[in-house]
Structures are given as structure tokens and as C-alpha cells.
């Protein structure tokens, strides 16, 4: 799976069947944990759609992190479309009206523009 449409910054994730985690790379270089020196092992990847609005001439962006919306959760080699809600400043994924059960371990969150959506911002590969 790759995320973003900017060639200067593309995040990619590869599922490792042996460890049951995702390995992350940015522009092809593995993301390394500063404390261990090892590549990060991510149990859950959460992608949420949120409204993005340019607020000034410098291009600064205000991202709506309170209204909720579509979410996509990757765990154990599969992804499931969900929704997300703001709960006391936390972006919580929901599945069938209940908070989603997330795998133990490191979670990684990406926030994508709602107007571009998942199909434009994320590329899935087998």
C-alpha cells in the first residue's frame, strides 16, 4: 500500500506475514526506530478522511479533526472500511457503530483530504 500523490513524499507499507506487522518506508527508505535502530513494526494503520481548508496566503491548512468521517483500518494483512469519531480529542475508528478493536502494538495514523478521498490518495497492491 502506498499513500500520497506527491512524488517527493510517498509512504509505503508492506505486510510481513511472519511477524503479522507492516513495515513502513518513505520514498523507498525504511522508517527506523531511533531507540532500537530497527525498522518500525506497525500493527495497525488507520487512514482517516478529514476536511482540509487552506486558511491563508502561505498555504497553511486547517484540518477538521472533530466532525468524523470515513476511515480505513489495516490490520493482519487486510483492510476494512470504517468510520471515525472525535472522542475527547482522539480520532477513534468505529466499526458497525462500536469502537473498533485494534491489534496490540504500534498504530500509525494518516489523515487524507476528504475531497480527494481514499481511492485517490491510497494505492493498494497485492
Automatic annotation (TrEMBL):
Gene3D superfamilies attached to this UniProt entry: YerB-like
Protein origin, superkingdom: Bacteria
DUF3048 domain sequence ranges: 9-109
Pfam families (alphabetical): DUF3048_C
Name the UniProt record assigns to this protein: DUF3048 domain-containing protein
Organism: Jeotgalibacillus proteolyticus
